[in-house]
Amino acid sequence: MLKKELIFIIFLLSIPLSFAIYNVSHSTIDNQVTLTYDGNPPFYINIRNDQNIGDFGGYLWAKTNLKSFTYDMSYAINPSKTFYYGVKDSEWSEISDFSIGESLNQECVSLLNNGLPSSKIDLILIPDAYLTIQEMNDFVLTTKEYLGLIGNEGLFNIEPFKSNKDKFNIYYINKTVSLGGCYHQSNTCDYNQIEELKEICPSIDEVIVIFNNDHYDTQYTHKAFANTCNHFATAIGHSNINGFIFNPNQLAHEFGHSFGCLKDLYFTQRYDYINPNWPNIDVFGCPKWCDGETLIPEPNNKGCTDFQTESLCETADFYPKCEWFPTLNKCLPLPISGACSIYYDESTCIDAYNDLSNFKCKWYPLPDGYCGIEGGIFNVNLNCNEDYGCYQGAEGLDGYGPEPTRDTIMGGMIEMRFDIASHTHLLNLLSNYSN
């Protein structure tokens, strides 16, 4: 008898346990609602204008095996714009509600609502010089492109923001205002007015101004900018200026500065101060993510800019060498990656930097003959964390990034991804907010 009872108990324990629906949440964009949930499919969804979830009727009954459900509620006649919903697998979830197409007031419009402001990153977008109804429509469209709410690019189509979209509430100011031109090197941007506009929406953490370039200039395209770590950035709207190309990932770059405290990963032929606390760049050798000795010595050519003539520039005893730029009438330091590029014949190429044991130039005869670094060494330290390296050229020649490319979001914005150091830092920041 005991044996049978034991077998029966083991049999019961082997049966998969079925739990009721859980982790039910929603987000809204304009008139669309997206419900997410966990449980055992199939799932039944009921949306209605009262709390009688599960009763006959309502605006929507749906059945799906997916753990996410999106529906356009624009057809629903509901003056209150408040809808109640429940999701069921074996049991109905607790009753929840959402609002669509809502304005918190006439001047603050919600684009993305994921919950209480106290637990989310609350971002506001403010128009600068969108002064007609058509221009305001253009502003809203541009905002959605930049955020990735429409199209395949933009902030919420790029990791780690894509997987953490539910940690944001997004609002925009529905008001025609001119802020004086909030673009790079402008001294007329009205920051006091921006502070007043922030107060229209609840508990704002991050501010982005989108400026109408064509209102301020019909010949020149002004640049976006962001103040690192101070939660303020700007982006340019669509422009009719000849040659202008709209980049929907520009806002992600500027937001990386203002929200993420990230620095540029551009290549510039200058030396500049590098703060080792900046999360995505480091000093020579990259001690934040690398150990041990570097493959090559640290460059010592900061003094190149002191030479005022071509002859002094090109004969200076520095590593890497200096290069004279006649169009600029300047002597500039060569980067490590270009240290050998100024030699145009085989003998001088091979003899260059003979006093450095770990750094050699090599002559490559094909296709047209050029002088390059032997072995193609650009990574100055191989003793790094997995997938990390140490590559010169981040905020100038004094800064080093973790990857050889300069095309990621904090660089040229050609690749739709953040470099590994930026991605890791952003992920840590976002982990401080709830889903």
Structure description:
With 435 residues, this protein is α+β, with helices and mostly antiparallel strands. Among the domains are: 22-101, Sandwich (Immunoglobulin-like); 104-261, Collagenase (Catalytic Domain) (3-Layer(aba) Sandwich). Helix content is 17%, strand content 22%. It contains eight helices and 20 strands. It has a seven-stranded mixed β-sheet, with helices on both faces. The chain has a four-stranded antiparallel β-sheet with strand order 4-3-6-7, with no helix packed on it. The two termini are 51 Å apart. Residues 1-18 have low confidence and may be disordered.
Label this structure with key terms.
435 residues; alpha+beta; Immunoglobulin-like; Collagenase (Catalytic Domain); seven-stranded mixed β-sheet; four-stranded antiparallel β-sheet; 20 strands; disordered N terminus
Write down the CATH topology of the domain at 104-261.
Collagenase (Catalytic Domain)
Looking at the overall shape, the CATH architecture of the domain at 104-261 is: 3-Layer(aba) Sandwich
Strand line-up across the major sheet: 8-9-11-10-12-14-13
**Beta-strand proportion:** 15-25%
- The helix fraction, in percent, is 10-25%
Head-to-tail CA distance between termini: 51 Å
Low-confidence stretches: 1-18
**Annotated CATH homologous superfamily of the domain at 104-261:** Collagenase (Catalytic Domain)
Secondary-structure element pattern, one letter each: HEEEEEEEEEEHEHEHEEHHEEHEEEEH
Mean pLDDT: 89
